[in-house]
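=== RUN LOG ===
request id: a7f3
mode: sequence -> structure
chains: 1
length: 149
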Amino acid sequence: MSLNNIFAISGSAMSAQTIRLNTVASNIANAETVSSSEDQTYRARKPVFSTMMQESMRGYGWNEVSNDEFGAGVGVEVKGIVESDAPLQPRYEPDHPMANETGYVYYSNVNPVEEMADMMSASRSFQTNVEVMNSAKSMMQKMLTLGQA
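=== RESULT ===
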């Protein structure tokens, strides 16, 4: 693996973590939203990550990463964003303006504590990839000075 590939791998990870942070922000913003029906209630969303393998990157002009017969990972991609299957929170509030005919309103299934933990994890993952890129840059700069006397 060359040092140049490190930038592509870390960059793809940083892009994925950015999507994760945006999803968390959307979930937190909609944590206390209500609706009069289950179908219209906001549900928590989570991104699904996948490893981009060496074989899939050949068509994009990427160099061979390794001679590994199984293929080497060359980054991460977001396959999609899925909605949570956790149950919604029906509450009996007949005076609420969004209450249905039986007096229930449905609150989203977003858990703010879980979302905050997810946000901290994504932020730290992003920061780690920045440090990886800085370390690779530093190593490349030191390689350039090897021949100097």
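=== NOTES ===
Confidence is low (pLDDT under 50) at residues 64-70.
The helical segments are 3-29, 54-57, 112-144.
=== END ===
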